[in-house]
User: Which sequence fits this backbone?
């Protein structure tokens, strides 16, 4: 089953609407979102109860729906690894400092992982299927696979699919202690949403051809073999990929390099995490970027790692992994 | 009442509302500030946290939280009982 991406929306460290003409670059080990004026999408009375990650998700979802010309999706399916971290922190802090007494409802309401999907639905008045996948670095991929299954049941449906993540001071400190942000790896955050449909139409910007996950491969050889078989299952060889976009994050990228040298020796290779930072659902940013590349047939020079940016792009493979254990493969094609 | 307005703004995260923009007799719920049931819970917590007052009878809530003035009068009356 494949789907067509009919609208995209993104709130990230990059400007939401002008990619790929302008790319903002950051230094340091934290790439915060370039917050847009959320009041253009959210009523001032409602915005006061929304944490940053909720605002990001609501904004990105609205942009994607506007882009697709869809007012009411048939499902809202999203992924997040950490959920609403900031409000979880607020609520837990109050729980401790106030000795479990006089806890206010707002922080609690905002602290659950599915709050973002719920708020999107509330603002739209959407009573349709609403699911949030919380599967670490596979959260986006599970959301996309569920979206494909949902479209397979009824090809007339439109699905709003996406992913959100936020950095907080607490999470950044804790994850830094775990060694996630060292050797040039920068923490990231953001929200990306997509309107997916099973039928190709005039709104279609790119084809979401296939999504697969590979968990804890035993070796680089197994990973390489899996990538090759994934392409074969879609009637392709590695040489058919016009651009490989990897999840290089500036740390130890030798895993990517070894498999690239073996499978994609002659293919151009690009990266994206220097633009959005490292986070469990960062592949959603890559999918947003890739959709823009395929729609405009323009590859930003700033993302290229190896080879020349192709002048014509038919197929792009996004290969991202987290700690070499969670491998995500997203194949996207031009319409 | 200016302090109480500032406390309400902070507790309810009323962005872009200034204390002087809230009328003393302006209804807090529905029309006026347009607060809702979640805000009512936040205001109950505000009374407990900032003024040490627990509302004994929940049915008094609509009268107590009608406006800033009714809240201020209730706080004054409750504090005078314990003074």
Assistant:
């Amino acid at each position: 089953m494949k789907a067509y991406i009919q609208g995209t929306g993104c709130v990230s460290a990059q400007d939401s609407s002008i990619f790929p003409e302008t790319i903002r670059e950051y230094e340091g080990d934290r790439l915060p979102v370039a917050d847009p004026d959320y009041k253009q999408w959210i009523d001032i009375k409602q915005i006061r109860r929304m944490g940053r990650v909720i605002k990001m998700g609501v904004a990105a979802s609205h942009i994607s729906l506007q882009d697709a010309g869809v007012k009411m999706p048939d499902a809202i399916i999203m992924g997040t690894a950490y959920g609403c971290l900031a409000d979880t922190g607020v609520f837990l802090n109050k729980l401790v400092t106030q000795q479990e007494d006089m806890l206010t409802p707002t922080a609690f309401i905002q602290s659950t992982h599915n709050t973002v999907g719920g708020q999107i639905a509330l603002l739209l008045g959407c009573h349709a299927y609403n699911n949030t996948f919380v599967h670490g670095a596979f959260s986006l991929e599970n959301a996309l696979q569920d979206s494909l299954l949902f479209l397979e049941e009824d090809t007339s449906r439109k699905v709003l699919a996406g992913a959100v993540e936020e950095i907080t001071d607490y999470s950044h400190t804790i994850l830094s202690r775990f060694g996630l942000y060292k050797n040039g790896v920068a923490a990231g955050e953001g929200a990306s949403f997509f309107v997916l449909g099973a039928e190709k139409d005039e709104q279609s910007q790119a084809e979401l051809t296939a999504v697969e996950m590979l968990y804890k491969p035993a070796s680089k050889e197994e990973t390489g073999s899996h990538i090759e078989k994934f392409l074969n299952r879609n009637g392709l060889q590695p040489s058919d990929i016009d651009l490989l976009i990897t999840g290089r994050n500036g740390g130890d990228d030798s895993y990517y390099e070894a498999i690239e040298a073996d499978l994609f020796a002659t293919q151009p290779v690009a990266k994206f995490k220097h633009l959005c930072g490292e986070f469990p659902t960062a592949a959603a940013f890559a999918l947003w970027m890739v959709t823009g590349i395929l729609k405009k047939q323009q590859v930003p020079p700033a993302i290229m790692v190896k080879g020349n940016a192709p002048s014509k792009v038919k197929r792009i493979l996004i290969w991202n992994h987290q700690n070499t254990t969670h491998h995500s493969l997203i194949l996207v094609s031009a319409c | 009442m200016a302090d109480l307005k500032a406390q309400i703004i902070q507790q309810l995260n009323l962005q872009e509302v200034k204390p002087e923009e809230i009328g003393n007799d302006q209804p807090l719920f529905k029309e006026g500030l347009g607060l809702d049931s979640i805000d009512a819970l936040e205001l109950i917590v505000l009374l407990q946290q900032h003024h040490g007052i627990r509302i004994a009878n929940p049915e008094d809530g609509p009268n107590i939280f009608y406006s800033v003035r009714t809240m201020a009068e209730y706080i004054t009356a409750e504090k005078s009982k314990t003074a």
Summary: The radius of gyration of chain A is 19 Å. The first strand of chain A starts at residue 3 and ends at 11. The domain at 3-197 of chain A is CATH 3.40.47.10 (Peroxisomal Thiolase; Chain A, domain 1). Chain A touches chain B at residues 44-45, 47-49, 102-106, 109 (CB under 8 Å).
